[in-house]
Amino acid sequence: MSTADTFLATYETPRPARLAPNLLAACFPLMKLIPARFMIARALASGYLSSGGHIVETTSGTFGLALAMIAAAQGYRLTLISADTLIDRTLRCRLELLGARLEVVDDPDGSGAPRGSVKIPRVWSLETPPPDDRRQRR
């Protein structure tokens, strides 16, 4: 296991927290890391993503952070698209420090999913489609 994989695994491993004498909770430092790693592994296995490739995804926060951690550790380029009401300054700084490129779209009604959303069309405009134009189902 590489140092990067060990680092990421420490964020995936739940820590028990005693809530009562016979009740424990599993606390995940970053639970979204597990589905993000699964998604990237599936994309690699199916040919949607190649080593050193470009990941483009919409995010509202922690899933984007998980993708940014994986991209930084494994050498992928990452572009994240989000509504301006969903990304605060602290998260934006963390994402950028990890090397992610963040594109923020206007969200005038504050819903996180602007009407006539430009998020998904923007994702598709940034993607490089595989040779047979398969696209990951969202």
For the structure shown, list the relevant keywords.
alpha/beta, disordered C terminus, 39% helix, 3-stranded parallel sheet, 5 helices, 138 residues, two-stranded antiparallel ribbon
Span between N and C termini? 30 Å
User: β content, as a range?
Assistant: 15-25%
Largest sheet: 3 strands, parallel
Question: Overall 3D geometry?
Answer: globular
Low-confidence stretches: 130-138
Mean pLDDT: 81
Estimated structural class: alpha/beta
Helix proportion: 25-40%
Q: Helix count, per DSSP?
A: 5
Would you report the number of β strands? 5
Strand order of the largest sheet: 3-4-5
In sequence order, what are the helices and strands, one letter per element? HEEHEHEHEH
Over all CA atoms, what is the radius of gyration? 17 Å
Short description:
With 138 residues, the protein is α/β, with parallel strands linked by helices.
Structural description of this entry:
The structure is a single chain. The chain has 138 residues and is an alpha/beta fold. 39% of the residues lie in helices and 20% in strands. The chain contains five helices and five strands. The protein has helices spanning 3-12, 33-46, 62-74, 89-97, 119-126, and strands at residues 15-20, 23-27, 54-58, 77-83, 101-105. The chain has a three-stranded parallel β-sheet with strand order 3-4-5, with helices on both faces. It has a two-stranded antiparallel sheet with strand order 1-2. Helix 2 crosses helix 3 (62-74). The protein is globular and about 50 Å long. The two termini are 30 Å apart. The model is unreliable at 130-138 (pLDDT under 50).
